[in-house]
Amino acid sequence: MDIKKLTAPCGLACWACAYYKDNITNELAQQTAETIGIAVKDMTCGGCKSEKGCSFENAVAGKEGCLTKKCVESKGLHNCSECNEFPCENLMPVVDMADRAPHNTKVYNLSRIKLIGLEAWGKEAALIQEKYFKGSFVYGQAPVLDDESK
Amino acid sequence: MDYLQMTASCGLDCFNCPAFLARENQEAMETIEEFSKEYGIPVEKMLCNGCRNHKGQPPAAKYLFDEDYRCSVYECCNNKNIKFCNECRDFPCDNLHPYADNANKVPHNTKVFNLCLINKMGLECWAKEKARNVKETYFTKPFTLNPSSED
Question: What is the Cα–Cα distance from B120 to B114, expressed in whole angstroms?
Fold first, then answer.
């Protein structure tokens, strides 16, 4: 797997996304396509940096497109962690859609990339996403997955 | 305001927290009263002077957990003799992991963003110019990939 190509400029792990071509199910594609108003076949995604780009870009960002992606590309960078303005408004965490979309993992991912490098982060990225969505709240600590608490 | 004393090791801005503001601010008090009902914690146990002033054991945590309970971030920073996680060679570690659970109730998903901003802007500047905006944006603004075109 080409981690460099499959990591979005904002620090999301495209290969761990439920809509990535190797992960998507027919059921999910149909449900979501209806919700966001695009064709079912267009739900399948090759990653943000693929030719077609993220399947959600038009639905979430409109015709202007994703600001983070445009910014990183215009600066000739691979991702926001390389930017001297990191982290800027484009990466601001928000509660809205927190249970469905992984935007609140961006700055954590990017900071991990800064710390251990893209390749090493790539090995933990899927677990970060799983813990984000499925982990239970523990005061002052990391989220706990069910199988960890047993 | 002593911003160093009133910012938790994890990067949360105690000085903007309703549990700190409630004694003097009616809106903050209403938030605390809602929390109190929802979690079954008496209002007086919710009122807080900031994480550092309670040595990593805010009254609500003390009420919910046992006497020996300490926040692992506070303890870790204390043991390493650093003020904030962003000074640590392991930043950011698992203790600052974001999560969806309770995301709409408590501000854990702003910690790493705040700590990175403190690195970038300095504590005073972040505290005075940005911290409130981060918290308000986090709790009230819609998810977007075009933040600068909002407002």
Answer: 10
A residues 103-122 near B, CB within 8 Å? Answer: 103-105, 107-108, 111-112, 115
Binding-face residues of B in 93-122 toward A, CB within 8 A: 94-104, 106, 108-110, 112-113, 116-117, 120
Rounded to 10°, the helix B131-140/B111-121 angle is 150
* Residue B36 and residue B44 in contact, taking contact as beta carbons nearer than 8 Å: no
Nearest C-alpha neighbor of A99 from the set A137, A68, A71, A125 = A137
Best to test chain A binding among B73, B85, B99, B110 (most A CBs inside 10 Å): B99
pLDDT at site A148:
58
The ipTM is: 0.93
CA B65 vs. chain centroid, Å, equals 18
| Interchain proximity A94–B145, CB inside 8 Å | no
Task: Decide if B147 touches A, using CB distance below 8 A.
Answer: yes
Per residue in A45-89, pLDDT (tens digit) is 999 999 999 998 888 887 888 999 999 999 999 999 999 999 999
pLDDT band at A150 (very low <50, low <70, confident <90, very high): very low
Chain segment B115-137, per-residue pLDDT in tens: 999 999 999 999 999 999 999 99
Between chain A and chain B, the number of residue pairs with CB atoms below 8 A apart is 128
